[in-house]
Amino acid sequence: MLQASNTRKTREATREIKFLVAPVLAADILDWSRTRLTADPYASGPSGDEYRTTTLYYDTSAFAVYDRLGSYGRSKYRIRRYGAAGVVFLERKLRTAGLLDKRRTVVPVEQLGCLETPTADSTWAGHWFRRRLEARGLYPVCRVSYRRHARVGMGTCGPIRLTLDDQILALPMQRLSFAPQPSVPVLTTHTIVEMKYRSELPAVLRHLVEVFKLEPASVSKYRLSVRALSLTAESAANA
User: Fold this and answer.
1) How many folded domains does the chain comprise?
2) E strands within the chain?
3) HEC string of 79-110?
4) Neighbouring residues of 72: CB distance < 8 A, sequence distance ≥ 6
5) Is 2 among the domain residues?
6) 15-26 pLDDT per residue, tens
7) Backbone angles phi, psi at 190, to 5 degrees
């Protein structure tokens, strides 16, 4: 599975709502969505809407992103890989005024070493990402993988995206690596449901919320993983 992207790209800002639901309810939501939304064109699996995602998250040595300190609370820097693809996406996820904006660049997996080389070529596609890591004092903290089911559609205001994430696994990281390693299960009792859209909540998603009586939840796979791995004093106390 490989998501389409230009070498350097900023996505138009979207809105996002998340929900935490039990696995049985998640299965019902997925069945419901399969009759109303289209499978993600880049996914696979029996229903054409499934793939595995692995993400390397960055934070400061003091975990300013985890603690949401100042501007660190509005942005996340991460590297994402879909399945066993030969490329990865360097991403900055920025949240402002209720909107979600992503900047992402695709580079070959074998070029990840450029992020750890201070003298890397300034013409390299990921140069902007490396410079931001240096400026903000960010380092690899953990790797999070999960299974995702994704359905898409088009509303009156633009694209619609519904995802359901489960089978979340976390692993502490100090270097950039996507090599398989034993990981810690995270959030085994729930599935994370996400809705992404432009402007107003589209009718089909509003109907889904009403049918299944969903309540929005503030949830972050990164924060859950840090707590599961007890990487900070606070996370160890809350584990």
Assistant:
1) 1
2) 8-10, 15-21, 38-39, 50-59, 75-82, 87-96, 99-108, 139-155, 158-172, 184-186, 191-197
3) EEEECCCCEEEEEEEEEECCEEEEEEEEEEHH
4) 60, 64, 65, 136
5) no
6) 999 999 999 999
7) -140, 160
Closest to 148 measured CA to CA, from 137, 162, 134: 162
Give the model's pLDDT for residue 5.
Answer: 44
Q: Residue 122's domain spans which residues?
A: 14-233
Q: Hey, which residues does 108 pair with through a beta bridge?
A: 87
Q: Is there a contact between 90 and 6 (Cβ–Cβ < 8 Å)? A: no
**Cα angle, residue 29 at apex, residues 27 and 34 outer, rounded to 5°:** 95
Q: Using the 8-state DSSP alphabet, how is residue 216 labeled?
A: B
Residue that the structure tokens 């003091």 belong to = 62
Give the pTM: 0.90
Nearest to 174 by CA among 230, 121, 231, 127: 231
